[in-house]
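Need a sequence for this fold. Nothing fancy.
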């Protein structure tokens, strides 16, 4: 009985891994890396590779952290703009806008196209039957 339970756990684990891998990136649903961007809330500075840092008051991803200070400019970055003062907002968690989700998914690198041709295990058209015919 323990053996069959173990097999079930392995199969369920394998199926969930396949489901996560299948959802790598899809701009229609807002899926990225196995989790959904669309409809989920994110806090300030949530980092998404290739998209940037989430700015909750602006509901999108930007190249710098929220209220990042640049000592050369002597300014703060928030929502893709620069100002002399850090942005102050009560909003520190929000759901991204649909266009922000689409842009974040589009920013992800595309997987390389495989040009490998595989022949598999053979085909029935090349098989021969060696039995005795009556």
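Here you go.
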């Amino acid at each position: 009985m323990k053996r069959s339970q173990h097999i079930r756990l392995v199969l369920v684990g394998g199926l969930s891994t396949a489901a996560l891998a299948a959802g790598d990136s899809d701009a229609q649903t807002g899926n990225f890396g196995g989790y959904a961007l669309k409809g989920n809330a994110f806090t300030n500075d949530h980092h998404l590779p290739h998209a940037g840092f989430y700015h909750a008051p602006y509901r999108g991803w930007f190249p710098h952290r929220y209220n990042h200070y640049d000592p050369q400019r002597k300014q703060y970055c928030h929502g893709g703009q620069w100002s002399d003062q850090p942005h102050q907002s009560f909003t520190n968690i929000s759901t991204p806008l649909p266009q922000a989700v689409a842009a974040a998914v589009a920013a992800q690198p595309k997987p390389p196209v495989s040009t490998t041709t595989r022949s598999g295990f053979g085909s029935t058209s090349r098989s021969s039957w060696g039995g005795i015919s009556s």
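For context: The helical segments are 2-22, 98-106.
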